[in-house]
Structure formats: structure tokens, C-alpha cells
Amino acid sequence: MGPAIRAGLAGTVIAAGIGLGAFNAWWMAAFIGIPLILAGLLIAPRPSRISGLTTFQAGVSDRFVPARVEALTRSTLANEDQQPTLVTATISPANDTSYRARWVTAMSRKDFQALADNPLTSLPPDRLPPREPRRSPDFGDHPGMRAVMYPAITVVAALAVLFAAGDVWRVSVRLPSIPVTASQTTAKAANLDARRDNMLRAIIEKLGSGAADNLLDLRFSDGGSDYGSVLNPTNGESTTVYINNGRDTYTIATPNTLRKTSTFTAGDVASIELTTIAERMAQQFRAVGNDGKLEDFQIKRSGPAKPIILTGKFNGPNTFPFPTTIQARPDGTVAELFDPADFAEAFKRAHQALELAGIAASEPVLTSFQIRGIVRNTPHLHASTIQNSGGVLIEFRSDHRKGEAVVVPGELPEVVDRSWGSSTPGFSFDEVSLTAFESVRRQAMHRGSLEPYESRAVDIEMSHETSDGRGLAIRIQLANVDAAAGTYSPTGEFLQPGTR
Question: What pTM did the predictor assign?
Fold first, then answer.
């Protein structure tokens, strides 16, 4: 096998080791990936001082050309039998003029000694040195380009195979396992209630009893490490109490911009059933097809002087469309994961948000009702509270208040009062028709020649728009396809292409 082929094969084997090790479980990297990489390195040709040199060969065949050696210089930089040797000789081809040549060849000790004893020899016709070399040869000419050529072939082959194969490296290996029951999902969280109690004790032991009244947040990780941040109300600084998975406790000074209004007390959280709430969070993810485990659980206020919120972060596949975090209240109420592109579900959430805001469905105080999907290619009608998260947004304005009601998948419904109101005309939720919204989407799908699955990538809104003179209208965009964008009447009749 030639060195170039060996170099290419070595690159392929090394790429296989890297690919299988990087894209799969640790045991595949340890038992398959690393051995393949080592095998590739062993296969790879390594350039030496005789790389590219022809091996000296003498003989007595009639075909061989007589030569008389005048000088020999053998390299002594290494102890190998084959060494670069500078030969000066007179070559006498049959039926041709003799010529004096100088070249470097790979010569064994035996051949060197034989020529030293008897300078008369003969050379194969295919290994004769040139009559007029371009330059006088030197030991420094070798190994020359071969010092980098073979490693370059190995590297290029490895990169080509590694990146061309793509997802081929990801191997799905199904090992025998015990089915995971619902109650086991939060078991690895190692009893959040006990960890909470242990953290509160550690905070008091490290920072004193007053620290229990100035908590900024508590966080528990799947790896077993726990964190508790505490505000020093005398200087505004904060300290984090850290408990590692070996249950050793440390304190770390941490930067802080929060104030006393963002703190809570140990009494506020001591009786919260954290493990139960974590299991309810996991149930929400299982309901939408994600059996991921809890990675992180945090307790903190949602803002200055705002309620305490519990947030769980779960892992999941890259294709999972829903958020990987979910909120809950201390009383055990857990936010729900829903698909806003299911208009019937979105309208139900809108009714609940209006009730939370204290607005009757018949009150003509709405200025905008927007539904935005959660899949990756969902367009943006305009900047809004749900432009990144998706969900349901209701903006309202009356003589005495102005604000919005927001329902986002994985988050607790929220009503935000922004300022005093005005007499701007609005519409009631009773005027918003689920049938009209469904009809508008069907028409937009047809106009944009979209596939059925693209119906989830929707941003649709009913609002007053003064710039186009249409007044109250439904505007829709789908899957970032311009032909699907359009403006419709509140009852679903097409008015014009585009949304502006």
C-alpha cells in the first residue's frame, strides 16, 4: 500500500473516531472513538530523511549500466541502517558518452562498505541520476515536500469525511432499560424540599439569621449543586451560598443590582411543596411529547415587589417547538404548554386572560387581539410582547386604564397596567370571531400555496390600523411567505394583499 493511500486511509479512520466520539455518548468516545483515532495515527505514514529517495541498488545484470564511484558521504544523524548518502560517480552508458553525476540515495551500511572497498559497480537503467541536474544535490533537500504532503493528505481526508458524513455519526443505540415512571422524573432532583431546607440552614449558618429575611433567589441544579443568593441590606451587595454535589458549602461575593423589593424570606418558601410542583411541571412536558428531565429549578420574585415565581428548566430535543422553561406559583399552580396556532385553544386562553384583567367580553375596550405561533419560521407582524415567545396578546384601553393581558406557553398569565387610559375607540372580544380567524388562515394558506404543516407558523391580529384607512381589520402573515400576507375584514372577507 502506497504512502498516499495510507495517508488517506488514516484520515478516514481518524475522522470516524472523532465523529463517533463527538456525536454520541461518552462510552462510545472512550471505547470506540479513541481507539479509532489511535489506529489512524499508527497507520498514517510519517516522513523520514529517506522519504522520496530511491534506494541504492547495485547488480551484475547485462542491462545494468557500469559506474565508478568517486566519493561517498553518508549521513550520520541517525542510527538506522538506511541513511541518505551523497554519491559522486562516473556513469558509462552503453553506446553513449560517459558523464559525471552527483546524487543523494538511500543506502544501507552493507552497500556503503561494499562501494568503499570496490568503487566499480553497475546501476539499473531506471535509477540513473540525470546528466545535468538543475542544482547540486544536498542532504537538506530531503524529505522536502513529503514532510508535509502525507500529513496534509491525512488532514484533508479526515476533514472531508468528518463534515461530509453529517448526521451519520449520530448512532442510536438502544440499551435495555427500566421504564421511567412519572414519579421518577423528579427523583434525580434529589428531593427538592430537603435541598431547600438544607440551603436555608446553610444560609443562616454562614451569614447569620438575618440573611433568611433577605433572599434574592434559590436555585437547584440536576447535577446536585445548589445556590442561594442573599442581599446585604446595609450596603446593597450580595453573597451566594454554594453547596456542591459533595455537600460542601462555600460563600462567594457576587455582583448585584437588585434592591430590597426583590427579596423574600425563608418563611415565604419554607412550606412550598417543591418536589410536587416539579412533578406537575414534568407532566406538562410529557403531555406535549417531551420526556426530558429537570435540569434547573429556581425560586425568585418575577420583579421588584412582584410575586414569587418558581421556574423549572427541562432538557429536550432541538426540534422541540415549545419553550424548555415553565413557571409555577407557590400554591402549586403550574403554567401550561399550549400551541397558540390552535385557534380554539388560543381563544380559550384569551377568555381566561380577560377574566384575569377584569374585562368583560362585551366591553369595547380592546385595541388589539394577537395570536402568534411558536414554530421557528413564524413571521412578525410587528414588535410586541410576544414577538419572541409566541402566545396570545390582548391590548386594551379605556377611560380609566391602559395595558395588556399576555398568555405565553410555559408562563403564568400576566396582566400589565401601563398607564391611565384615554377615550380611544376600541372593540369587544365578542366581536372577534373564531370562525373568521380560521377562515382567514385558510384563505392565506391558499393564496401563499402553503403546506398544511405551515399553518402553525402564523401571526394574526385584529386591530385598528389608521395608516391604511381600513379601520378595524384582521391582518395575517404565514411562514414568512409574502403571498400569504393579507388584510381581511372582521368577518373574514379578503380586502387587500399585505398587512400595511
Answer: 0.61
